[in-house]
């Protein structure tokens, strides 16, 4: 182990400073580099040098939310993948599992997150939420109630809301794909 | 007064003062036959620089223990200030010290109490120090409660190891406690299992489903999380919650209590509110003493070779009788920190990044498929997603010398690699 | 939050205000202000022990300040008791410290009742003779019906530390079992209110939201009830049947998203364990102290007897222990969860009331005032009644006069599970060495000359125990003990200081479970062992 009596400092080889790379950064590089995004998803990097903060757009081509483009922000912290990424919806939308202020009820973003999951798992989860809203674990209670009691009516509400209309007296953002 | 004091510096005084330890260092052992009781060992103990990370419950103990082991050049780094709730265990602090930097107060106390020792405080974050700083030390002992800080120092020390220079290997001894339980471990960066290798042993932080918090609260904790996660931003906008500010805690407590009343839920208290939002872990002096002493005992054995050091993990539990479990935690081949190999590669600086990429794809012992590259956390080229690939594509046709300098280390990820490859490229 | 609650916040989360109160009314005696002794006191003064007294007739030497943090250069030549008492006192303004610069033996000669002021005695750096004397006095005080005085004897020898606890009886109510274990759901034998609650859910007509939020306790109750209807009122008896019950539950799911069914599925095996009084609690009920109460019986035994009487009153208890009244969190709507919670809580309260009635009868029979035992005490007892623990330590006299020869032989043979028994033998042999030579092995310069002598003491001990095994205590280890030469090494003193103070906190607060009866740590191999010698 430590050869203690040969500890004399040898200053001959001056060490170069290595740039610091964290395990979180490399893991994100791996997650992103191996992504195979479906046509319905697009990513943007506000600062291309920064892989830890980016946006994801999902444009579902079927089900209730087809025709809209939904933006989510991703913020990955230095404790990734021990901590899950923080994901918010950037628009105000009418959805049983998404709150007006952007909070999302998706199990793998909180209680069921595991370090073996990847950014791709989260993206797939978000897409699933848009295809199959879950009325039984609501964040937006009214939207959930609408979905449960009358799917037709819910569908009409979604149709209206993603075009900037109001539902139950609340106005939503126009998120139609341009 | 002072000049009437006997000097503790004479050789005779020294050997009386350290009688217990010197017996170990002066006498040979049949259990540890490799140990040679040579005088240089004592000199090494006196001259070795030891770094203590954290001046909290474990840190105070560690500083005391090192000073009373005969180490004379001790440094301590901590960014925290003293809080009244520290006083039940952080015994170098008094009520009058509340608000002062922990590192400074702790160092001053030990310097005053133990003659001949110099504890040097660093009142800052560990991330504020560079590799030159950490390179100075023979051994580093960690008494932290933050996972992130531990991961950082672990990765830094693993990254510093140069296989050709044994002096770059800094033994890291890490301790942690919770209630009557704790653990101590020895990490030889790059050689034994590292902190990152054992991340899956950590208990999962309990997060509650957002929809439960929002709509079907059942526990007092659900009401507290509602107040802190959902209601706080609603009421306070951009202002961040300060969990050290009693006013903010009081607001959370009242908000959670009102919600609990509304739902007929019992058990929201100020103390529970504080516990949940600050993620408070119970802590007592006794457990800190056990774990810190264990860490320092290992440091002493490593420094003196007078007995075998811990290989590499000891768990302690005092809830039901006293139980310890000593075992070797296995190094993980795909560990993102110590599993990533550093390879040196000689390559022409006027060749392009694309040519490097092709080389890695064709090289028989690499055979990468779609490698992505970064330098110091900044991407050089990414295979995906499309938007990044397009933005970075111009780099592919640039000569390497334009992208980085000779000797720089780039990080390569690829689906064929267990985690990643650190590639040090020297231009030829 | 008041200042004291703030200061003690991190420990109150472990032992609560009751534990804190117990600590604050305790008075600890430390015999000899050694490094390990002061480290123990440090860890007790910080959390706010009531009082401590340091007894030590010695003056401070250089080697004292080398290993004891509660001495400094200014202390040299002064009373060790006084100096350590003062520096320890600085740690907590709420704690009272006292010191006596006398030898414990002469103190006890002056006043044989000297120990009766103390809750617990810590002895360090004493000879076997003195240890036997103090231990005997502590033990006797308890037998004479006075307050129990726990005796804690601590040794540090180089890299080895050891502690022996001796107290005639230590009873624990709050053993702090895992929350999960504490829940007593009675799925196999629901009380009427619980059965009615389960029936209030109609599994067929509920919409998907309601169905997905039926508490898993109700699901288990329903499927268990259905099972019993088809199986002669019996719950699943064997592995196959239990699995069948699990399969039934799984088949009741409407979608794979019904997490409440997952929860029910995962708890099904446990629910199939019939509710019974655990065997160790039954033993407790048969204990002579539970059988024959006297006016001097402790609250613990009076309440234990009341619980036993309650259990025997099958009409009230169905033969079960009082209900703990806690339930785990589970997927459910707020209302149905809160209702379920209150059903269990109400039943638990009723049980407490029944037990309380028995307590009152017993108190009357014993000629004690009916308010001798408060209802809160009974409540706590009932809540943890399945997890009670009574430890009867062996006295030190017993350890020396009636060695457990059979166990000793197996400890020496099984070096895998008892790697440190040779260390125990060597510590015992070192005491014998002291009797022979008036010093401890390895103390002097010619330390290697002591190896054979100590080995001789080891052999004698082993012969007394009838051990014939060759090399039961390796001679290399005997050599190592001489190498240590009873040196005090601060790290080991501090480690043991932590271990012993944890044990003392457990003894004083009567919470968590202390070890029984000897703990040994080997700092060379970083391994520990507990032996009931």
What does this structure look like?
Chain A: Pathway: Protein modification; protein neddylation. Chain A: Belongs to the ubiquitin-conjugating enzyme family. The complex is a heterotrimer of chains A (178), B (428) and C (533). By secondary structure, chain A is of the alpha+beta class. Chain A has helices spanning 23-33, 119-131, 141-149, 151-161; strands spanning 41-44, 53-58, 70-75, 86-89, 166-167, 170-171. Chain A starts with 22 loop residues before the first helix and ends in a 7-residue tail after the last strand. In chain B, α4 (57-67) links the parallel β1 and β2. The relative contact order of chain B is 0.10. Chain B starts with 10 loop residues before the first helix and ends with a strand. Chain B has 3 domains: 2-202 and 283-327, Rossmann fold; 210-277, Ubiquitin activating enzymes (Uba3). Chain: B, domain 2 (Arc Repressor Mutant, subunit A); 341-427, Ubiquitin-like 2 activating enzyme e1b. Chain:  B, domain 3 (Structural Genomics Hypothetical 15.5 Kd Protein In mrcA-pckA Intergenic Region, Chain A), CATH 3.10.290.20. By secondary structure, chain B is an alpha/beta fold. Chain C has 25 helices and 10 strands. In chain C, the strands form 2 sheets. An 8-stranded mixed beta sheet of chain C has the order 3-2-1-4-5-6-9-10, sandwiched between helices. In chain C, strands 7-8 form a two-stranded antiparallel ribbon. In chain C, β9 (518-522) and β10 form a beta hairpin. Chain C is elongated, with a radius of gyration of 28 Å. Chains A and B meet through α1 and β1 of A and α3, α6, α7, α8 and α9 of B.
